[in-house]
Description:
Elements: H1 4-16, H2 26-71, H3 75-79, H4 83-125, H5 127-134, H6 137-174, H7 176-181, H8 185-237, H9 243-284, E1 304-311, E2 322-329, E3 334-338, H10 345-352, E4 360-365, E5 368-369, H11 375-379, E6 382-385, H12 396-401, H13 409-418, H14 422-425, H15 445-459, E7 463-466, H16 475-489, E8 493-497, E9 509-514, E10 517-522, H17 524-528, H18 534-545
Parallel strand pairs: 3-8, 3-9, 6-7, 7-8
Antiparallel strand pairs: 1-2, 1-4, 4-5, 9-10
Amino acid sequence: MLLTFPYVAGKLIDAASGKDWIVNDINGIAFILIGILFIQSIFSFFRVWLFAKVSEKSMRDIRVALYERLVRLPMTFFDQRRTGELISRITSDVTMLQDTFSITLAELFRQIITLFAGIIFLFYTTPRLTLFMLITIPVLVVIAMVFGKFIRKLSKKTQDYLAAANVVVEETLQSIVTVKSFTGESYEINRYRNKLNSVVEVALKAAGYRGAFISFIIFALFGGIVAVIWYGATLVSAGDMSVGDLISFVLYTTFIGGSIAGLGDIYGQVQKAIGSSERVLEILNETTEKQIKGSSIDRMKGSVQFDQVLFHYPTRPEYRVLDGLSIHAEPGEKIALAGHSGAGKSTIIQLLLKFYDVGSGDILLDGKSIADWDPQALRNNIGMVPQEVLLFGGSIRENIRYAKHDATDEELLEAARQANALEFIDKFPEGLDTLVGERGIKLSGGQRQRIAIARAILKDPAILILDEATSSLDAETESLVQEALDKLMKGRTTIIIAHRLSTIRKVDRIYVIKDGKVIEEGNHESLSAKEGGHYAHLVKLQFADDTKQPLD
């Protein structure tokens, strides 16, 4: 609609000179111009609103798709990425795309229509001048392509550096206690500042290319306008064009020039968005965990067998973590894994949860190879109480219900009661609705452990994994937690990672792990009595310390 404005404005000048048109009254033509502006303002409102509506919904879908892809990716992906980098992908990069879709594309759409429709109007009104003006456009297009390549490359580099800076923030905030304990505030501030300096350096380089491109566009554009006006003035003086047509042409040329200049900046913004989209697409193109159809069952029996398992982490292929390991647990049995740190105990649990694929050998669950189990179906039958419990930053109710989202309040309370958690929950004014703080920081270690136990009770798994859940608790709290664990272990296959040997005396079988192999197997009494045995040596070391700091 606005493109009719220069044409009508030219007729206003011609009407003042006495030339005839559809409307010869200059006041009437002025009202037409005002009407054009009013209609254009309405179109502009709906253009901005529609683009914003489409972009907001599109960005929501992209964020959901990106987040869904992230949480469904295998552990091997997270081994090679840092949390801050991934957060940057779903925040900074998607925000860049959002700005492009909501603002830049709307402007791009408007500028392109203005450019092409303006040229059509010019060909209709003043074809000779239009051909003269169009000589410069191919040159501008070629230069735009060259500059765009550099801008896109630098924009992607800027986003990478920004992701690295976000990693520093994420690590510092997660380890704030350590940072303050070692008075590392200044070190972390300097580390963050140096990362941001790299971001600024690359961003300024990209801005330099973008600024040079825009400056050239403006100079070439308005230089061309001066040349066109000069040529038009010669046509007017020769009587080949009216003053009104020249005014219309100049206004159209200004519109077109503004569009070309705007396209220069928009082109740079689009190139930056392409850099961000490449980072987003890298994640969206990653392969998720393999889903196996037909392997879902309501409940496993609980038998577990590791058969000559060899394994190394994908990031450390030269180091074999498990070397021909074989262990087994019948349904309802309690076994323990003992050994020094780094022996491979935690790796066994990660393989059991199918976080990684076995290198060779096999893991059998209810007699079926773990390769034939769907990860979701498998993990639905396994519960875990870790040594360090990290809770979600919601309420106690939300954290316990995480194991079973459709659980009733009665089921929640029963799980909390069996976990000896009601003892402290009932003391809170808000009860189950008490907020636990980020990562459960508002609760003590023993309280977090009992919430984790309540969560495992609510899940009712066939296989239970205990990563020495009482190793860092005081005697009174340990007694409450141990009592809750005893209830939890009844009737379930239980695998305990032993940090303190005093807690595994009553298990059915103990496997002593060293360098990824089982070097000893038996119960506590038989292994303790074995002369020169590795387990007996560990017992002597730990119970010698008991005289200084009792563990039982």
